[in-house]
Amino acid sequence: MFQKILTGAAAAGTSAKVLGRAGIIRPYSPVVLAKLAKTLKDWGPGPAGGFASLAIRSPHGIGIIDELGELTFAEMQARSNALARGLAALGVGEGDGVAIMCRNHRGFIDATNAAAKLGADILYLNTAFAGPQLVEVLERDKPAVVVYDEEFAGLVGKADVAHRVIGWTDSESHDVETIESLIAAHDSADLTPPQRHARIVILTSGTTGTPKGAPRSEAGVDAAVSLLSGLPLRYGWRTHIAAPLFHTWGFGHLALSMLLGSTIVLRRRFDPESCLEVVQQEKCQSVVVIPVMLQRILALPQETQDAYDLSLVEVVASSGSALPGDLALTWMDQFGDNLYSTYGSTEVAYAAIAGPRDLRAAPSSAGHPPYATVVKILDAGGKEVPAGESGRIFVGNGLLFEGYTGGGHKEIVDGLMSSGDMGRFGEDGRLYVEGRDDDMIVSGGENVFPQEVEDCLARHQAVVEVAAIGVDDAEFGKRLRAFVVLREGASVGDDELKGWVRENLARYKVPREIVFLDELPRNATGKVLKRELPKDDSEDSSA
């Protein structure tokens, strides 16, 4: 069903227009074109073929800038060739798994490319994992090798894995191999392509339990065209990927860089002022973030924000969670109309993109589905609801995942996959996401989506961030409890905040309780861990 929709909607002319606008369609000599065709035929469009093609197209171009310096595309190719031989010597072959627990640096990309060149599946591990989570994921997926930064040695040491390789070193002596030692010990000549292409396995956020592995095969050009139709990125830009590379959004832009010939600027840790400094210093034209990073930058003193010139930045690409309150407007008022918010999930990848015009007109909207993407709002029976009515969001595109590694799948209706969220299309044609389909509560017979209340509270001038959950109530069945973090130096009472909600939303959406916290619990991708918020008064840290 979805393929029919896609075939009817997609046209070669649209793809050519999008790719041409991005500067991807470029003149090459017949010799280079022949090499490119063979490389992509042998290695596919994934990391192995994508970065190998850049070594042909632009061998002396700068591919990575991290805290250790610069690497050209030719150097990246040589390093991954040598590392692939090193991993093969440890027993990694086609169909095996290579787990990567690295922050944003060259080692993450080295390991990704090397594993792909062996036809091994690549499992990205969250750098914020606790010991039990890490052990459970590794026992479930059983990778042949774990590549990790030295700072995670204690966590990885608790898991039963066959081989370990350190991706980033903090000391001079090590008991295990490192990426650099394997590269130094092996030949960097090109390898023979495997019979099988690698799969990328991205873990879900794990906000409600143990993260699930969501594998997908190599993305084709159609998926890139879809994103580029809504994100005006261009060939050869310098892109600071501040979002974690192990996350769908960070990795997605790493994948786009293979097509765009981007110079990827990386730093291992995010710091709000350092981010501004790196973007200015490295003359970046695009920045890839998650919303909490924008919040932290905007929480800097005004004089600090004003000290940095981001006039070269044309795209700030945000995804991973909704933009709370008027965050989009605050960002654009400070740094210009360069913000693009993409809505999606680990399972469906992308579903809608809101550009600056969308965010100016409707800051809480998710925008519109990009090219060759279908989004429908379905009721409980799987039938499409009229525009304006709420229902479950279902998505069709070229990057739907293949089912969880531990078994199970998202619901599929007529080729469209559930995003796990509830939402509606407004009269303006934009998609509005109302919250997770399992977050909605029924309080006194009325349906309440916590996200709507969160957005309302976040617009109060004293509030930095907020999370709301449903808790049991003997009278109403469920009641809403909101957890609020105030701006530094701000003072406001719960009665005033309840009054604020009452002025802007229906009375039944006013939280019965407001709890003030110093910060909300979050995972490494910036999502609030609502399961860690107190469900009863005995757990409250303040009230």
TrEMBL record:
**Domain AMP-binding enzyme C-terminal, chain residue ranges per copy:** 452-527
Q: Name one GO molecular function term.
A: medium-chain fatty acid-CoA ligase activity
- Swiss-Prot/TrEMBL keywords: Ligase
Q: Does the keyword Ligase apply?
A: yes
Domain named AMP-dependent synthetase/ligase: residues: 64-404
GO annotation (BP), single? fatty acid metabolic process
> Which InterPro entries does this chain map to?
AMP-bd_C, AMP-bd_C_sf, AMP-binding_CS, AMP-dep_synth/lig_dom, ANL_N_sf
Pfam families assigned: AMP-binding (PF00501), AMP-binding_C (PF13193)
Which family does the UniProt entry place this protein in?
Belongs to the ATP-dependent AMP-binding enzyme family.
Q: Which PANTHER family match?
A: ACYL-COA SYNTHETASE (PTHR43201), MEDIUM-CHAIN ACYL-COA LIGASE ACSF2, MITOCHONDRIAL (PTHR43201:SF5)
What is the name attached to this protein's record? Unannotated protein
Organism field: freshwater metagenome
